[in-house]
Design brief:
By secondary structure, this protein is of the alpha+beta class. The chain has six helices and twelve strands. The chain has helices at 7-12, 39-49, 64-69, 78-83, 155-170, 190-195; strands spanning 18-25, 53-63, 89-98, 101-109, 113-120, 130-136, 144-150, 178-183, 200-201, 220-225, 228-234, 249-254. It comes from Pseudomonas farsensis.
Length: 255
Amino acid sequence: MNTPLPGNLLDNAAAVHRLTVLTLNVHKGFTFFNRRFILPELREAVRATGADLVFLQEVHGSHEQHAERHPTWPQTPQYEFLADSMWPQFAYGRNAVYPQGDHGNALLSKFPISEYDNRDVSIHGNEQRGLLHCRLQVPGHDQVHAVCVHLGLREAHRQRQIHLLLELLDSLPPDAPVIIAGDFNDWRLKADAVLSEHLTEAFGSPARSFPARLPLLRLDRIYLRNARASSAKVLAKYPWSHLSDHVPLVAEVAL
């Protein structure tokens, strides 16, 4: 993660009251069924959205075998490659570690990240999952919180992870803007029923985002507290339909 800007520069910056937020499960940089490594094309598509905050799931920190096999594999971690020169601040939460490398959640930000913490919410070690919590320095606000989420595939695990997410939410200042986004794997909408008691979903109700070629399941979400979405879209058309197994969600958020 890069060094935050000095406080005096932030104090002199114009207050920011509107953010563009994007969330995407990048599927480790591969297309559906892992047929092709697509990360360079994905980076151009993400850059074209102009998002201020980008929430990423299933992003590689490293993978030795893939690096040897694919000529376009970046020399830097995937999240740093995606950040490039457009998002000067980034944070990575490593969730899964294996002999070849690791992957997890990441946040790319146009605003300074003053601190971050990756909370392990794995249940019994079956699926390695985490909540990447970042505190942002956004001009005009004491603090803004962003939480990048990737929950488990099992219903019982997700329910426990939602409880841990709500514990994190309760620990944050009650009047601070909070943006929670990611892949909730909540196709039964049971997690949404709980979260909607505490947060506002950017689309009003969860949008269809999986599988990318024909989105049917409502897996990906953007939730807000002390903020509201003025518009929200599913980016389901080409090229997005061919860049991952999920399609991204993007929302204009008013703070």
